[in-house]
Design a protein that fits this description.
- This protein is of the alpha/beta class.
- Helices cover about 35% and strands about 20% of the residues.
- β5, α4 and β6 form a beta-alpha-beta unit.
- It is globular, with a radius of gyration of 17 Å.
- The protein binds guanosine-5'-diphosphate.
- The site of guanosine-5'-diphosphate (GDP) has 16 residues, from α2.
Length: about 220
């Protein structure tokens, strides 16, 4: 089979379009605290992680073009859980619990960390991690820990530097360069700027997620 001239190897804009359509159909599937409670480990899934307040829920809602998709993860009782959203029978988005500002005891934090690490280490369906960071405070200790885990497992990570609308274009470009430079410590890590408010960076993110979920480009 020949590829039409000018088609980028990754599928280009047609894959980001197909992914945007697919994610519009995403819906809440289930919650889990341990790997044992997760849905069957088959198909493909892309997980989202981020320190509390980084903008993860807003980013997921913007990418799914659904105002309330990730609100599910914010309902009391669900904030310390891994939340699964079905895109279709074989594909899922996963909202991983964030921490940071919540004053939780160290034993809860340890349990949380164990559950998360277990999921990241062993989940075979997981094909990539989207790490959401506030562009003004990138690469916190939490972010470094996540990237470290990804590298250990050979899992690719994509840093979404969100709230880019809070910075001038030049400052946002500088922040992106700085993160890309630092991220060379974790091979397999890519980065982009994003804004859920201004709806910028969506195509680039859809493209990456579409590659990881193996969504066929739309002709
Ligand atoms: P989460 O805790 O990581 O899920 O963060 P949220 O998505 O709830 O966002 C935290 C705060 O940042 C909220 O007040 C959002 O309105 C705000 N926020 C999220 N994304 C953006 C963005 O792209 N631009 C701006 N200006 N604010 C944002």
């Amino acid at each position: 089979m020949t590829t039409p001239p000018g088609t980028p190897p990754s599928g280009g804009p047609s894959r980001s379009r197909a992914t945007s359509r697919a994610l519009q159909r995403a819906s809440f599937l289930t919650s889990a605290t341990r790997t044992a409670d997760c849905p069957p480990d088959r198909g493909r899934e892309v997980a989202f992680a981020g320190r509390s307040n980084a903008g993860k829920s807003s980013a997921m809602n913007a990418l799914a073009q659904q105002g309330a998709l990730a609100r599910t993860s914010k309902t009391p009782g669900r904030t310390q859980l891994i939340n699964f959203f079905a895109v279709d029978n074989d594909r899922r988005l996963v909202d991983l619990p964030g921490y940071g500002y919540a004053k939780v005891s160290s034993s809860i934090r340890e349990r949380w960390q164990e559950g998360l690490e277990d999921y990241l280490e062993h989940r075979e369906a997981l094909t990539g991690l989207v790490l959401v960071m506030d562009i003004r405070h990138p690469l916190t200790d939490f972010d470094s820990m996540m990237l470290e885990w990804c590298m250990t497992r050979g899992l690719p990570a994509h840093c979404l530097l969100t709230k880019a609308d809070k910075l001038s274009r030049g400052a946002a470009a500088n922040a992106l360069q700085a993160v890309r430079r630092q991220a060379t410590r974790w091979p397999g890590t890519t980065a982009q700027t994003f804004s859920a408010t201004a709806k910028t960076g969506l195509d680039e993110a859809w493209q990456k997620i579409g590659e990881w979920l193996d969504i066929a480009p739309q002709v």
